[in-house]
Amino acid sequence: MLSKKERELIISLHDKGKKQEEISELIGCSQxxxxxxxxxxxxxxxxxxxxxxxRPTKLTKKTLGKLKKKILNEIQDANNEFCSxxxxxxxxxxHQEVGELYSLRHTHKT
Length: 110
Fold this sequence. Notes:
Blueprint: H1 4-15, H2 20-27, H3 31-42, H4 61-81, H5 87-98, H6 104-109
Helix pairs in contact: 1-2, 1-3, 2-3, 4-5
């Protein structure tokens, strides 16, 4: 997710005549993301991060912090042996730590 400053930078660079591909390379995001924020701005929509709809997570900030540390350690260990960790492995870590089953899609969003 882009920060508000990055979104503002996208609009600024676009106003200066930069192409979407150039902007995406400078910001480090995809061209469709650049296009989406330019379109948002041209329609008069805000560049602020708006509250998300849907069910809020059951995980507390403290639990999320622990999970992030454990997942990062798992990733570092995997990188030493192989080269990556997949969402199934991350879901397994979450289940072991929290006792909740998360779908692969939800695991990817977390």
